[in-house]
């Protein structure tokens, strides 16, 4: 199934991809596309972590949200989807919410972590875990309340601007002396003001997921542009 990818990047690079193990936190609008892209790019060892079930409100932006999957665990649905794409993929499942305690139940044998969750305390736990265990990581900032996928950038956390979530994380990570974390963020101003529920579309989270997975793959084969 990977012949056209191998034609593009070469056999040696493809073999490098197949040797790496990636852990994705969060299987929502962003994380679902990360998993899809990684699987279709040759990653065959992956961990997926999410505690949530699929609801009808997920259907406007999440790749695993279908009428047939409503009410099911996101991890189980994603596992079945990835296996349906590549039967040889090895998947480790973690069905719990991430915090400072639960994250320590995960074996630190991953090469990359992709953080796609919204919870600030959970994000901090993931980032600390990756730095303590020398695991490469990229973290997604906010993708809600935006419409322009062209406004995404990947930079170090201390170089971010506009994104409200990045602002919070920038300050909290500075207290931990972490300023070089690679993050994906948008410089698009929030569209709707003063809302309790963050509005969303398919365009930005899907694009964010693709860009995050691309960063991992290009870093593996040493042609990353970050």
Describe the structure.
The protein is of the alpha/beta class. It has helices at 3-9, 11-19, 31-40, 74-85, 120-132, 164-175, 203-220, and strands at residues 21-25, 45-49, 90-94, 112-115, 136-140, 152-156, 182-186. Helix 1 packs across helix 2 (11-19) and helix 3 (31-40) packs across helix 7. The longest helix is centred in the C-terminal third of the chain and has 18 residues, at 203-220. The radius of gyration is 17 Å and the shape is globular.
Offer a concise description of the structure.
By secondary structure, the protein is α/β, with parallel strands linked by helices. The chain contains seven helices and seven strands. The chain is globular and about 50 Å long.
Spans of at least 5 consecutive residues with low confidence: none
Query: How many DSSP H or I helices?
Result: 7
Helix content: 25-40%
In spatial order, strands of the major sheet run: 3-2-1-4-5-7-6
Shape: globular
Major beta sheet summary: 7 strands, mixed
Radius of gyration computed on alpha carbons: 17 Å
- N-to-C order of helices and strands: HHEHEHEEHEEHEH
Which structural category do the helix and sheet elements fall into? alpha/beta
Query: Mean pLDDT score, rounded?
Result: 97
Task: Give me the count of strands.
Answer: 7
Distance between the termini: 29 Å
What is the strand content? 15-25%
